[in-house]
Amino acid sequence: MRTLLLSLLLLAMPVTVFPQKAFRPVKAAMKAKNYKEVLNLVTKLREDSVYQNHPKLCIYSIEAQRGLNDAENMKLYLKRSYDTIAFFSTTHQIIREAVKLDSIERALQQTENKKPKQTHLVSEMLRLYFPNLNAATRFYYKKRKFNEAMDYLRTCLDLPHTTLGEEVELSAKNDTVNAVLYLTSAYNLKQYKEVHRYEPLALLNAKTRLSVVDCLVRTADAENDTATYRKWLTYGWDNYPQQPLFFTRLIDYYVKQNNYQHIVDLAKVQLGNDSTDESALLAQCLAYLNLNNLDECIHSGIRLLQVDSTNVDANYYIGASYVSKALQVVLPDNPSKESYRQARAQQKAYYIKAEPFLERYRALAPQSKNRWAPLLYKVYLALNKGKKFAEIEKLL
Length: 396
Known about the structure:
By secondary structure, the protein is an all-alpha fold. It has helices spanning 2-12, 17-22, 24-31, 35-45, 55-77, 84-112, 119-129, 132-142, 146-158, 163-168, 175-188, 192-195, 199-202, 209-222, 226-239, 244-256, 260-273, 278-290, 294-307, 312-328, 338-364, 369-382, 386-395.
């Protein structure tokens, strides 16, 4: 009976009696300023469901992290070699423990109607250490340690907008820059879903919007999101027409759609912005050749060579257009008629015009045999260039 009563009394005792004994080693390590041992003991205690959400463990952890942080800070003050990563890591842990402590006390207020006791400590820790997180994010970003940068950036971006952050009045003035850093970090790590986490916020920064849109274009391409890819390409081209990335990728997109008339329209707009834009003139050549608008293709190719006499592809488009014009000449059935001789002369004239452009293209792009060889085959055959024809025939 006595044993049963003792058991019931033990069960009835407040659970706070047990932590006193469990926390003695933590207190001893803290008194000895053995901060790493304190943190090890806290970690072990949190493995036990009885203690894992005990407010005191947060307090011990905060004090230990502060001790380690102060040690690094003192080295910096004395201009001695110090561990930057340890300094920033302890800063981050202090903030995390403060947030955890606040969360535990709010939960206890809801479930047990206990008034929070550590509000002042939580507020003091956040106000004191939160500003240092921005420096940490820049440190990791510049070191291209993007995973670490993203970890710190999430705290910087999320915490000021929580109930706790608003109560403490944490600054959110760096939000747009931090969002840009997060987006580009995620892109560099190919974590494409994370690219979108703070996307609207990142787009608010006018100074870096170009690089953000660039990342969004490349992300949409990697995600095979055709609609979003086209959206950002169009946005980028509309707002940054001087940036070749958007226009050239937009042209490539419509080539895949076989929408050559739209390419003509886009090129006209681009040339309205800059009449010497080589990519727009080249796009015109490609579109006009596919639309069989051969005179316009030749005209655009000549304009392109006037802008840049070294442009390789201009020679191909001009030469290919003249070959196509030759092939389109209709020869009358009767070879003895004057109309037949005139048609043959016209056809020959087109081949003669095509020859120098195609030969120049061959010389400048020998690796593109699949483009110039079939055309030169037709030219040399039509112009009875025996040796040149035999050479091309052997190549083919």
